[in-house]
Structures are given as structure tokens and as C-alpha cells.
Amino acid sequence: MSQKYIKSQNKNSHNAKSYGKYYAKPVYDEKFIETDEIADFIQTQATLKRSDIKAALDELGAAMKHFLEMGQKIRLAGVGIFKVGFSSIGVTAPDNCTASTITSRRVLFQPEIERIVTGSSEKNGKIVQKYVNAKTLVKDVAFEEARGNAVAGTSNAPSNGGTTGNGSTGNGGSNTGGNTGGDNGGGGNGNGEDED
Predict the structure, then answer these.
(1) Are 194 and 183 in contact (CB under 8 A)?
(2) Torsion of the alpha carbons at 62, 65, 66 and 70, rounded to the nearest 10
(3) Which of 70, 133, 176, 184 is deepest in the core (most CB within 10 A)?
């Protein structure tokens, strides 16, 4: 198996450079690779005792690489979702949009999110809960101002991946997959990852 992609035409007329060009866009299976399947794969690579836990953790990277190379999405419980993202060079005809137009590749990660109730209020005689969506991995992170550091210069330009969608800046390729998410088909316009 391999990572699948479709040919997607840029229909954003505001970007004359990439308008009408075709870009490779990733496609993913509906099914996620779950933690148990990762564990099953690791079990085929190492036996488990106390010392074997370390061996299993060492195998995690190899297991993730294995499934990502197969074009699968991986969901680790309590961690989040990992999948392959890539950029491609825009071409004028769909027949020219081949695997050779795919340039940079990367791993896209969406941390697991959980709903945390922060309180309640009364509205029209009904009790309404207030809540926030918190990223599981970072919800308990505390922040503290650094002392003695110089203030860095500021810029209005967007940081890493601020431009999303087909025809992003750079080599004329698309920022397929967005920053850390993708739409239900697998990215391209920076929408949040689908949660099945």
C-alpha cells in the first residue's frame, strides 16, 4: 500500500499564479490506525517485560513510519492523530499532475482534544454548562514570563505555514494539508482534521 492522492484544481481566482493549476492532494482511508494496532505491530518486533517497555517505545517510531508509508492515519489515545502531508508543484494539465510533482513531505499532527467544563450559568430558566476545548497533551501546561530576555522584533507576516491552500508561497507548490489539519478528504485548505 502507499499514500494516495487526487488531482485537485485550484479554483481560487484571487491567486493568478496558481489559478487553474492542478495540485496533488492526499487522500486517506476512513479507518484510523488505533493504538491497539500500533501495539500489535510493536509486539511483532519486541517481547515485553519491564525492560521490554523501553524496547517497545524504541519501536514506536518504526511502527509509525511503517503505517505512514502505507498512507494510513495513526491515532494514539491521549496523544493525537498523525498523517502524511506534502506539497506539490502546480501544473497546467491533469495528465501532468503525477507523483513526480510532489515536493516536500511532512508529518501532520493534530493533538487530541477534550471538553472541559469550566462552570455553569442560568439562561432562560435552564442551567447551561460553560466549557472549553483543551488539547489533551498541553491542557495542564503553565506559563511564566521569561526574565532577562531581549524582546524579539515583531512582524505582521504570518508565521510558519500562515498561507494555506493550493498555490502557497515558495516554489509555486501547494501547502496541501494545511498547517496541522485537513478537511475530510485530507487537507488542502487548512480546515481542522476530521474526527470520526
Answers:
(1) yes
(2) 180
(3) 176
